[in-house]
Design goal:
The protein is mainly α. The protein has a single domain, classed as MetI-like fold (Orthogonal Bundle). Helix content is 84%, strand content 0%. It contains eight helices and no strands. It has helices spanning 2-40, 46-61, 64-83, 91-116, 120-128, 133-163, 175-186, 189-227. Helix 1 runs antiparallel to helix 7 (175-186).
């Protein structure tokens, strides 16, 4: 194992960096989608409700490996067949889109629950001061909801980080993909997968501790406000 770390450790660390980059991009764009569809699920519009429901159920109902192949291979093929556009997607682009869509579906539910956890009186008070619905939502309700959602967002980042391993099937050079390359050279699958497992475990434990610290601080802040 020490020999593998000495020879391929830097390669695996670079792959972990690619994994974290992909997970972060997926989370950022997933949060944007989550905010859009989460807001659509709480507004007083049946059409918006239906669109949000279809998106969330469709993405959550499709295995991520199928979604990855569909975006990486299916979408460019369809565009080239119908529009002769000569479209190709890099593994990074396809992987980011895939993770963003998948993460966005779960983030939409997190944001919907976060908004609904805020006392409706906050919206009514903002509206009574003359703010429009959307100004009240973005200036009063959503900032409070985001504070409640931070631990859930960190947990979603952990899930997204784990999901990046699926994208090795489309050739993105993340940790699992590079580990497979190292195994093909060394034929030492047990040692390589053990190293990869420990690398994932360290990163995820750090993120879990961050989530716990944030949750404790948020709970302390709420208790301090109540004490006043």
């Amino acid at each position: 194992m020490a020999q593998i770390l000495g020879k391929y450790g830097m390669l695996l660390l670079q792959a972990m960096g690619q994994t974290l980059l992909l997970a972060l991009l997926g989370l950022i764009f997933g949060c944007i989608l989550g905010i859009i569809f989460g807001l659509m699920s709480v507004v007083k519009s049946k059409v918006c409700h239906a669109i949000s429901l279809v998106y969330v159920n469709l993405i959550r109902g499709v295995p991520m490996i199928v979604l990855a192949f569909f975006i990486y291979l299916g979408v460019p093929y369809a565009l080239n067949q119908f529009f002769h556009a000569g479209v190709t997607l890099t593994a990074l682009t396809a992987g980011t889109i895939c993770l963003a869509l998948n993460c966005g579906a779960y983030m939409a539910e997190i944001i919907r629950a976060g908004i609904q956890s805020i006392d409706p009186g906050q919206m009514e008070a903002a509206r009574s001061l003359g703010l429009t619905y959307w100004r009240s939502m973005f200036r009063v309700v959503l900032p409070q909801a985001i504070k409640n959602m931070i631990p859930s967002i960190v947990n979603q980042f952990i899930i997204t980080l784990k999901d990046t391993s699926i994208l090795s099937v489309i050739g993105f050079p993340e940790l699992v993909n590079k580990a497979q390359n190292v195994i093909a050279i060394t034929f030492k699958s047990f040692q390589v997968w053990a190293i990869v497992g420990v690398m994932y475990l360290i990163v995820i434990l750090v993120l879990q501790q961050v989530a716990k610290i944030l949750e404790r601080r948020l709970n302390y802040g709420r208790k301090a406000k109540r004490a006043r």
